[in-house]
Write a structure and sequence with these properties.
The chain is an alpha+beta fold. The chain has 2 domains: 1-38, N-terminal domain of TfIIb (Single Sheet); 40-136, 2-Layer Sandwich (GMP Synthetase, Chain A, domain 3). 31% of the residues lie in helices and 33% in strands. The chain is built from 3 helices and 6 strands, in the order βββαββααβ. The chain has helices at 40-62, 102-116, 118-123; strands at 3-9, 12-17, 22-25, 69-78, 86-96, 128-136. The strands form 2 sheets. Strands 1-2-3 form a 3-stranded antiparallel β-sheet, with no helix packed on it. It has a 3-stranded mixed β-sheet with strand order 4-5-6, with helices on one face. The longest helix is centred in the middle third of the chain and has 23 residues, at 40-62. The protein starts with a strand and ends in a 5-residue tail after the last strand. Pfam families: OsmC (PF02566). This is OsmC family protein.
Length: 141
């Protein structure tokens, strides 16, 4: 797996993934940026949320669960001093699907956390990661 970050101007960079996708990274104005892109630490949280969402959805679909939507919201705290690593991360899973099994949802989340989600396992070495989840039995909008 490869990636590259290239400086554009001020504190703006473009990041290109090995698969050829591009994203803009930038900083807040007080740090010399223009707020024109995602912050690198936000990108880490997006990677975590995406990694676990992929896992949970795939596990539920393979188990033939009637999942119609999956949203993962992340709330994290960072250390106050450098290096400002994440200290706590909470993942809130919001799933939809009529007849979803609560036991299978919890198992899918646990499997992601403990076995499949590389991002969760790596970040869990420095931060306390917790989760909660809800299931809306109605079809997703």
């Amino acid at each position: 797996m490869k990636a590259r970050v290239s400086w554009v101007e001020d504190m703006m960079f473009t990041g290109e993934s090995g698969s050829g996708h591009t994203i803009v990274l930038d900083s807040a104005p007080e740090n010399g940026g223009r707020n024109a892109g995602v912050r690198p630490m936000e990108l880490m949280l997006l990677g975590l949320a995406g990694c676990t969402a992929f896992d949970v959805l795939l596990i539920l679909k393979r188990g033939r669960e009637p999942v119609t939507n999956c949203v993962v919201e992340v709330d994290a705290e960072r250390a106050r001093t450098d290096p400002k690593v994440f200290t706590t991360i909470h993942l809130q899973y919001r799933l939809s699907g009529q007849g979803l099994s609560p036991q299978k949802v919890e198992r899918a989340i646990q499997l992601s956390k403990e076995k499949y989600c590389s991002a969760s396992i790596m970040l869990g070495q420095v931060a306390e990661i917790t989760h909660s989840w809800t299931v809306d039995p109605r079809e997703a909008a």
